[in-house]
Amino acid sequence: MTIVPDLLDFDELLSDEERSTRDRVRAFVDERIRPNIADWYDRAVFPTELVPELAELGVLGMHLSGYGCPGRSAVEYGLAALELEAGDSGLRTFVSVQGSLAMSAIHKHGSEEQKQRWLPQMARGEIIGCFGLTEPNSGSDPSSMTTFARRDGDGWVLNGAKRWIGLASIAQIAIIWAQTDEGVRGFIVPTETEGFVATPIAPKLSMRASIQCDIALTDVRLPADALLPEARGLRAPFSCLNEARYGIGWGVIGAARDSYATALSYAKTRVQFNQPIAGFQLTQQKLVDMAVEIEKAQLLALRLGRLKDAGKLLPHQISVAKLSNTRAAIAIAREARTILGGNGVSGDYSPLRHAANLESVRTYEGTDEVHTLVLGAHITGISAFRGAATEGAS
């Protein structure tokens, strides 16, 4: 049984449909992910066998409508992200890369032909996509990317490199962002194209049950219809990143909740000085602090979800959740580990795994520093970014 803090009766704020979606994903995590994740993490294995099951669950491109996509609400997608990350950040990241990044890029910026060709297969998990924006020397400042696409007759030739690209070595298509003589543009690149090479990054101390890669692009030749026609400038990839950041604001609560639940269960059964350690004042303070922060994070995420479903969500509001909820989740995972004592470093318990994963989540889709400056610019009206980086950060 999943232990959930219930200080404010959060479920009362959800519709029957939202609770049903949440419970369905939670049951999947309990059955398919939770019993196996320690082994996957230890062996640094991403369970590709779960891809068709995740498609059947309806979480691939979950928030997108049409073209075979599930068309669920933003709140339902957020709740699903929370439950998936309670299993592991790597599994939630797969859903995010597939749906919020790769599929969203095609859904938002692709031609009708591109949408019809790719999205139904991606929603069914038959095609895996990745999203190539970050480069070895271009992380928080994507305006400095050096990957370049030049016109060659009716087509294009791409050269460059990308780094920390989720799923690239198992993907069938890559959304690659490149500088051109017309500014930043996006391309759908079949990964079997000559000159495209994806190499998994190893060893990793975080996100071990996930895949991140280096991509090398050497004279990659593409036809004219590989171009995403509606993607122009940095606002195009960042409209997709905002979809992913929204999911993160929900997802990290799952890692925090699972860490809390593990610590609470352990504290009730671990006896020291002739009583369960849950009866000690310092342990209770830790548990209360965790529960309160989880409740606050859920309310923040739900507020964003309601705004998103109403079409009113703004980029700086997403930054509030990405910054605050991720920061809180890391603190909760670390504190939960202390309740476990020495046993907390064992793979039998989840908090330290969650804490390690959250260091990656904290970094990707905008670091703490980037989101702080996004909010600083909103509050003061003065941007601390330089040049084009302002657009990229928002």
Automatic annotation (TrEMBL):
Pathway: Amino-acid metabolism; tryptophan metabolism; Amino-acid metabolism; lysine degradation. Coiled coil: none annotated. Keywords: FAD, Flavoprotein, Oxidoreductase, Transit peptide. Residues 15-126 form the Acyl-CoA dehydrogenase/oxidase N-terminal domain. GO terms for molecular function: glutaryl-CoA dehydrogenase activity. PANTHER family: GLUTARYL-COA DEHYDROGENASE, MITOCHONDRIAL. It comes from the Bacteria. Its EC number is 1.3.8.6. This is glutaryl-CoA dehydrogenase (ETF). Belongs to the acyl-CoA dehydrogenase family. The keyword Flavoprotein applies. Residues 130-220 form the Acyl-CoA oxidase/dehydrogenase middle domain. It catalyses: glutaryl-CoA + oxidized [electron-transfer flavoprotein] + 2 H(+) = (2E)-butenoyl-CoA + reduced [electron-transfer flavoprotein] + CO2. Residues 232-379 form the Acyl-CoA dehydrogenase/oxidase C-terminal domain. It holds the Pfam family Acyl-CoA_dh_M. Its cofactor is FAD.
